[in-house]
């Protein structure tokens, strides 16, 4: 890797800085271009003293990443190109069109670590493939852990140890419209049953006639003719029942219309119903949250996602995958209690805002003191200081993992997974069952005093 010349085109300073730092540690020379326009990129590539060995496009926006990838291929045809893309359709097309291009997904880089934190904290990462899972156990010392092959059922079995929840807990998990629908239906059925019982006991009707007359009353068609000769108290009860049925029928009808015409992200029963035990709560339905939720669902683990933006781009994808989504703020105590945080397997705060994730972690700790919390963070001082105060199960350093993933790929290493164990960054490769400590790749002059600093360009001027 020593002597490689790499250009990093970025629109995220943290990710670009992390990737550049790894390339420099491994003996390469880095030129960073933050959000360059066409003229700046063309001028920069021409001003370099030597041809570049690789170009990495690091962006959270697929459109921006695709534009830079096509421009880089136009300016430097055939150069080693690494691009971060989320959409699999676009990624497959780019990889097919540009043979020299390797398409990476930042979610694929971070999800194995998050998955391990959610399901099995004794492992540093979990990578499913079919009915098996490649797992790397945390090492007891400074060295990397051991690679294991686990059946999926070993990871999902833990969710069955939670006791069954009550009807009250199920009703509490429903939204306002669903609660109105269930409550009005239950009240109508109760009124129907009471009317049948009164018809049999008080009016001495046959049970078939009593059922018929109760159904007529419930649908406001008419009432029993025998009621005209019934006692006074029965007439008062019947009048009150008919008035209540009139209101309940209106509420029930409105709730049914709302359920069918609205874009509901959860269901009362079925695949998109909110789980109440042995589930994982994923807060933040961005690219990472969606991929993590889908991976958990594919493994047979119940999951519910929380998203505060009703216009989030990933909501239709979650609906298509039958992933229940609750709109709200993940740091809301009442929302976490509604989602049965105490009975969950874990709470994963994986939004793009590190401070918001920390707020979710603190709220979850207050609601469920013994709950497993998984936090996506940026490795900043706020996260480090907060972690020393609050017990957090796993903290996944997003820039550090993605930066190492991009740097290794642009240097032709192409790991299948990058993860952190024991404070050190490790990688797993498809052609080996051994874990590699990426510190072993550091160049001989990789000490802080001797490592060349990544160069940054702005408007064609070196900084």
Automatic annotation (TrEMBL):
This is Portal protein. Keywords: Membrane, Transmembrane, Transmembrane helix. It comes from Streptomyces boluensis. PANTHER family: POTASSIUM CHANNEL PROTEIN 2-RELATED-RELATED (PTHR43833), VOLTAGE-GATED POTASSIUM CHANNEL KCH (PTHR43833:SF11). GO terms for biological process: potassium ion transport. Residues 443-463 are annotated as: Disordered. It comes from the Bacteria. The chain crosses the membrane at residues 180-203, 233-257. Residues 280-380 form the RCK N-terminal domain. InterPro entries: NAD(P)-bd_dom_sf (IPR036291), RCK_N (IPR003148), Trk_Ktr_HKT_K-transport (IPR050721).
